[in-house]
TrEMBL record:
UniProt key word Flavoprotein: yes
Positions annotated to bind dimethylallyl phosphate: Y155, R171
Residues noted as binding FMN in the record, renumbered to the chain: G12, A13, S14, S41, S90, M91, G92, T93, R125
Enzyme Commission number: 2.5.1.129
Family classification: Belongs to the UbiX/PAD1 family.
Top EC class of this enzyme: transferase
Name of the protein this chain belongs to: Flavin prenyltransferase UbiX
InterPro entries tied to this protein: Flavin_trans-like, Flavoprotein, UbiX-like
All residue ranges annotated as the Flavoprotein domain in the record: 4-175
Purpose: Flavin prenyltransferase that catalyzes the synthesis of the prenylated FMN cofactor (prenyl-FMN) for 4-hydroxy-3-polyprenylbenzoic acid decarboxylase UbiD. The prenyltransferase is metal-independent and links a dimethylallyl moiety from dimethylallyl monophosphate (DMAP) to the flavin N5 and C6 atoms of FMN.
Length: 188
C-alpha cells in the first residue's frame, strides 16, 4: 500500500468539531499515512477554544506549521503531498483559493495541490450561500477541487455531536481515498 501525505488546513469557520473528528480518525488510520502536515489559522484556534472549550489541537501527533511558513514542504509541489483537506473551510479561504491569492500557507498549499492536479477537498461550512460563494465553489470545482459541504447524514442514527460530525468526516476520508470502516447505506 502506498502511504498518503496529507495536508489538513483548519480555518476560522464555525465547526471545529469537524477538524477534531478528522484528527481523531487520521490517528486511527496512521498505517495508511506517511505524513500529516497541519496549518491552522489564528481564527481557527480561537474558534476551537470557543466551541470545544480546549486547545486539544496541540495534543495531536502531527506536524504543525505556522500559517506564514512558506518553507513548509507542501508549499512546493516537489514534496508530493497527495491530498489537502480544508476543514472547516471558510468562505474567505475558498474565495482566495478560487482567485489564486496565495497570501498564507493554506492558500499557497491549495494553489500547489490544484496546479499539481492532486486532490483538494474543501469542507465548506457556511449557510446560506451567496452567489459569490456559489461562484467560488464552481471555480474551485472547475480547477479540480472537491467541494464537500459539512452536511451531515442521519441514516446511521448518530447519537452525539461527534457522531454527527463523523458522518461528514467519513465522506471526506472516502473522498481522500482512505480505507476505513464506516456506515454504508444498505450494507451490513
Amino acid at each position: 500500500m502506498i502511504k498518503k501525505k496529507v495536508i489538513v488546513a483548519v480555518t476560522g469557520a464555525s465547526g471545529s468539531v469537524y477538524a477534531k473528528v478528522l484528527f481523531d480518525q487520521l490517528q486511527k488510520l496512521k498505517d495508511q499515512i506517511e505524513a500529516v502536515g497541519v496549518v491552522m489559522s489564528d481564527n481557527a484556534k480561537e474558534v476551537w477554544r470557543f466551541e470545544l472549550g480546549n486547545q486539544a489541537y496541540n495534543d495531536y501527533d502531527f506536524t504543525f506549521y505556522n500559517k506564514n511558513d512558506f518553507n513548509a514542504p507542501f508549499a512546493s509541489g516537489s514534496a508530493k503531498y497527495d491530498t489537502m483537506i480544508i476543514i472547516p473551510c471558510s468562505m474567505g479561504t475558498l474565495g482566495r483559493i478560487a482567485h489564486g491569492i496565495s497570501n498564507d500557507l493554506i492558500s499557497r498549499a491549495a494553489d500547489v495541490v490544484l496546479k499539481e492536479r492532486r486532490k483538494l477537498i474543501a469542507v465548506v461550512r457556511d449557510t446560506p450561500f451567496s452567489l459569490i460563494h456559489i461562484n467560488n465553489m464552481k471555480t474551485v470545482t472547475e480547477a479540480g477541487g472537491i467541494i464537500c459541504p459539512a452536511n451531515p447524514s442521519y441514516y446511521s442514527l448518530p447519537k452525539t455531536i461527534e457522531e454527527v460530525a463523523g458522518t461528514v468526516v467519513s465522506r471526506v476520508l472516502d473522498l481522500a481515498g482512505f480505507e476505513q470502516e464506516s456506515y454504508r447505506w444498505q450494507e451490513k
